[in-house]
Amino acid sequence: MKYHVGQFFKKICAVFLSFLMTISTAIFGKEIEPPVETEGNFITEYSKENADYFLAVDAEDEIHDISDLLFGIFFEDINFAADGGLYAEMVVNRSFEFTDLAKDDEFYGWSVAGETNAEVIIDDTENCLNENNTNYLVLNNNSQTLAGVKNVGFLDGMAIEKDAKYNFSVYAKSTTESDSLTVRLCVGDEVVAQAETAMLNSIWTKYDLELTSTTTASQNVTLQVLTEGEEVHLDMISLFPEDTYKGRKNGLRKDLSLLLEELEPKFLRFPGGCVIEGYTKETSYVWKDSLAVGKDGLPLAFDGTYGNVAARNQGENI
To answer: Which of 53, 183, 239, 275 is most exposed, with the fewest beta carbons within 10 Å of its own?
Structure first.
């Protein structure tokens, strides 16, 4: 069918071209030369006479030995290769920093759970976690019942395993200092893991919990952070599997890392691909951003340490 349709259009074009040639002859007294058709695709040798340079390769002539040490891997942070990939963090947009550099939706990946108002405060340099982390979430719950937000995770969603342990952490504060957080792993409406923090206070404080799943699931899994508090501030909501590569807390995904290890690479190029040069010189990869530096370019101390992931600047190198 496609062949017949193609032949039909070729005939139409030929008739139209013949008509134009006839009109041109009548008006200008000369014929338009028809285009030269070629018989199929063909390749011609590059003209050495007209070229400034040419390259001749003789694959049969082995001049140099290639070292077997040159087999390696390189890392390019595209298509969720880092967040949602090698990095074992399970919460997407954990710090509400999805600005115009990402999805331009600070609430991306989140939705309300229960009856509460959830608002992302943007660029608050006075009440924020630190100067590099200026967005945070405020929950206003007046329903007298547990309510809050839930997160769906990266790409196709979170996956959990029965009896596996997951490390939850969050920076939080409350205006009333009489509220706590209830954290749940849910499959649909079923609660499969739950824990509760201590009472919140009026300053940003990090809270850590351990959740143990009672089931295995890879669909409809959400992390829920709930409270009865009237005004609760949240930032850096995080969930990691306890079983990471080499057992490192907040480390890499074990399964993917073991696959790379089994390749036995002799080197790792980081960063790889187009990330290293950026769009411009100003947006090229800045290694200092991975160590958390302040606006003055000096290391930024946060929560009693340097290099804290909650204090790292989000630039073009997402």
So the answer is: 53
